[in-house]
């Protein structure tokens, strides 16, 4: 039987038709062009009904294709409270394969056809191509959903539930739909992976599983430690889902260790309007200042450690104030270099002779962090395109132990069996305990926090010493609205533009002007999450950075008008 015929025989076409009709006639979203990008679909929540319908349809195809659980995470991460979004999660915790992004994008955009029959036909053509050569006939439909704390998230999850309860004709296929409620994005990745690897079809006690896996090893490390440099960890939860999850952790923390005190700030997730406002990882990184709820006096005390999560707790930023009240940002570059240094310090010299340890960054990594990696740590460094999936891929491809972080705080460490075997052979107990903390599936603010705190404890240093490892080049990231950002095409891992024609030559001239420092660098790329282009510049002084930005902005204007 052909894919189309098979799908026709199992799908509840009446349900699809009535849903299509109500969506296609909705004036709010029918004028939009949808793109499933680096972080799935993300926009004002009122425009999301069509993208959600498309996401449910693609998830349906994907679970038929894989015969395993596929996850849908409902979140818009660090975006403002009125936005929302979703992305799908693969059986082993990865993102949707790039080759499928165009399918979901086309499905979403074809809901605007005014005829259901034309839409259905498009859907069958896409399904036939996507499911080509795969046995889909004996596979069940298995879905896991989770959501962040946004006001609109419950409505969106209700749509998913309705969709999967209705999309298949009764008795044609079994549908297993599990709703994990309010969870962090990395927790949903973890749980989908766990269901797949352990072939589990019933709902887990997620907090228990997650905290046993990562939290208990952290407590073990703390209780064995004799560290002395800091006493209290302040965690800014961005008034989002991190607060829900960490509240539970805080209680058990008190009972299990007296080696570190935890204090949660910005935990008011019940007031929807506060999510990510004046707090959270993105706020701290972008504004380079303390979040709401942390006073300068508190931040200057070296016995305190500070970090901020973003709204769905998949990225983290640490920070401190020095004795002169200067803001010290400990971002993704700093975490990657600290982890690299730790691996080197805790292993004998010959350990890395037959095992490759390296770091993956993006073009946004500060130039001085890259120099520190190559010149001081003497490690390999690779540049990847923006988007964690690109860094993850390059870390797996290039290294046995691959540390990857975007400057904005997204990242983790991955390692293979070669490394684990050698770790056991060499009897490196401290490092063996440490690697248990790592969530290899995906960058995870909570487990990254454990990883960084464990390193600071093992090296017995505080945030100030960590910050003193190298000095960042002054830099700035700005955005600029252009008539059509899709005209901006990059190469060389986004460090150069091939289009608009001539713009790269202008940027080259600006950064190599006679009085410019050798360290001056600037690049322009179209954002994948907002309708803007981003301009990054770094140089030896802030004046020079600002001069470069001003000139690049002018060059962009000349090239686009
Ligand atoms: C998304 C990506 C993040 C990237 C950011 C870039 C994931 C889970 N998130 O948030 O990795 O840094 O987009 O945004 O992939 P931009 O394209 O707007 O600069
Ligand atoms: Mg996020």
Note the topology:
Elements (H helix, E strand, L loop, with lengths): L2 H8 L2 H12 L2 H4 L10 E4 L4 H18 L3 E5 L8 E7 L8 H13 L5 H15 L10 E7 L5 H14 L8 E8 L2 H13 L8 H19 L7 E5 L4 H16 L4 E5 L15 H7 L8 H5 L3 E6 L6 E6 L5 E4 L1 H14 L11 E6 L4 H10 L3 E5 L3 H11 L2 E5 L5 E5 L1 H9 L3 H7 L9 H15 L3 H5 L7 E6 L8 E3 L4 E4 L3 H9 L9 E6 L6 E6 L3 H19 L1
Parallel strand pairs: 2-4, 4-5, 6-7, 6-8, 11-12, 11-13
Antiparallel strand pairs: 1-3, 2-3, 8-9, 9-10, 13-14, 15-19, 16-17, 18-19
This protein binds 2-acetamido-2-deoxy-6-O-phosphono-alpha-D-glucopyranose and magnesium ion (MG).
Q: How is this structure best described in words?
A:
Helices cover 43% and strands 18% of the residues. With 561 residues, it is an alpha/beta fold. It folds into three domains: 3-204, Alpha-D-Glucose-1,6-Bisphosphate, Chain A, domain 3 (3-Layer(aba) Sandwich); 208-467, Alpha-D-Glucose-1,6-Bisphosphate, Chain A, domain 3; 475-560, Alpha-D-phosphohexomutase, C-terminal domain (TATA-Binding Protein, 2-Layer Sandwich), CATH 3.30.310. Strand 6 (232-236), helix 10 (241-256) and strand 7 form a beta-alpha-beta unit. The longest helix is centred in the middle third of the chain and has 19 residues, at 206-224. The radius of gyration is 24 Å and the shape is globular. 46% of the residues are buried. The mean pLDDT is 95. The chain binds 2-acetamido-2-deoxy-6-O-phosphono-alpha-D-glucopyranose and magnesium ion. Residues 38-39, 77, 386-389, 406, 408, 410, 527-530, 534 line the site of 2-acetamido-2-deoxy-6-O-phosphono-alpha-D-glucopyranose. Catalyzes the conversion of GlcNAc-6-P into GlcNAc-1-P during the synthesis of uridine diphosphate/UDP-GlcNAc, which is a biosynthetic precursor of chitin and also supplies the amino sugars for N-linked oligosaccharides of glycoproteins. Pathway: Nucleotide-sugar biosynthesis; UDP-N-acetyl-alpha-D-glucosamine biosynthesis; N-acetyl-alpha-D-glucosamine 1-phosphate from alpha-D-glucosamine 6-phosphate (route I): step 2/2. Residues 210-317, 331-459 form the Phosphoacetylglucosamine mutase AMG1 domain.
């Amino acid at each position: 039987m052909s894919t189309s015929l098979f799908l026709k025989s199992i799908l509840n076409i009446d349900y699809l038709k009535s849903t299509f009709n109500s969506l296609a006639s909705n004036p709010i979203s029918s004028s939009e062009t949808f793109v499933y990008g680096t972080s799935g679909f993300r926009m004002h929540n009122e425009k999301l009904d069509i993208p959600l319908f498309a996401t449910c349809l693609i998830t349906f195809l994907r679970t038929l294709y894989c015969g395993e659980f596929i996850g849908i995470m409902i979140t818009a991460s660090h975006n403002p409270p009125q936005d929302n979004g979703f992305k799908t999660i693969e059986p082993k915790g990865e993102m949707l394969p790039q080759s499928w992004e165009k399918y979901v994008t086309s499905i979403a955009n074809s809901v605007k056809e005014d005829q259901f029959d034309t839409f259905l036909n498009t859907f069958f053509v896409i399904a036939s191509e996507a499911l080509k050569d795969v046995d889909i006939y004996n596979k069940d439909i298995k879905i896991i959903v989770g959501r962040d704390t946004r006001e609109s998230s419950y409505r969106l999850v209700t749509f998913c539930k309705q969709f999967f309860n209705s999309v298949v004709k009764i008795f044609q296929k079994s549908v297993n739909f599990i709703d994990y409620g309010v969870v962090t994005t990395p927790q949903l990745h973890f749980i989908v992976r766990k269901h797949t690897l352990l072939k589990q079809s019933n709902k887990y006690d997620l907090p228990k599983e997650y905290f046993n896996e990562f939290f208990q090893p952290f407590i073990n490390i703390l209780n064995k430690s004799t560290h002395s440099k800091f006493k209290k960890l302040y965690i800014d939860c961005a008034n989002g889902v991190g607060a829900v999850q960490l509240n539970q952790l805080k209680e058990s923390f008190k009972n299990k260790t007296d080696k570190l005190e935890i204090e949660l700030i910005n935990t008011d997730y019940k007031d929807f309007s506060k999510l990510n406002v004046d707090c959270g990882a993105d706020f701290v990184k972008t504004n380079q200042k303390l979040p709401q709820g942390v006073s300068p006096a508190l931040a200057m005390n070296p016995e305190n450690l500070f970090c901020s999560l973003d709204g769905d707790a998949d990225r983290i930023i640490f920070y401190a104030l020095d004795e002169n009240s200067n803001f010290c940002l400990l971002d993704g570059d700093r975490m990657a270099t600290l982890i690299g240094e730790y691996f080197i310090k805790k292993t004998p010299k010959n350990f890395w002779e037959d095992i490759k340890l390296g770091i993956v960054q993006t073009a946004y990594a500060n130039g001085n962090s890259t120099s520190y990696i190559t010149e001081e740590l003497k490690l390999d460094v690779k540049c990847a395109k923006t988007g964690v999936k690109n860094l993850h891929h390059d870390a797996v491809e290039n290294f046995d132990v691959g540390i990857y972080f975007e400057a904005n705080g997204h990242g983790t460490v991955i390692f293979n069996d070669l490394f684990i075997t050698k770790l056991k052979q060499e009897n490196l107990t401290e490092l063996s305990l440490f690697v248990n903390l790592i969530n290899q599936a995906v960058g995870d603010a909570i487990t990254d926090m454990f990883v960084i705190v464990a390193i600071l404890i093992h090296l017995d240093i505080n945030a100030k010493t960590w910050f003193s490892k190298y000095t960042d080049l002054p830099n700035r990231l700005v955005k600029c609205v252009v008539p059509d950002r899709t005209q901006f095409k990059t190469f060389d891992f986004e460090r150069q533009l091939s289009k608009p024609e001539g713009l790269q030559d202008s940027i080259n001239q600006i950064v190599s002007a006679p009085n410019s420092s050798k360290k001056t660098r600037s690049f322009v790329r179209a954002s994948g999450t907002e309708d803007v282009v981003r301009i990054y510049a770094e140089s030896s002084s802030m004046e020079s950075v600002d001069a470069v930005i001003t000139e690049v902005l002018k060059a962009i204007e000349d090239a686009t008008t």
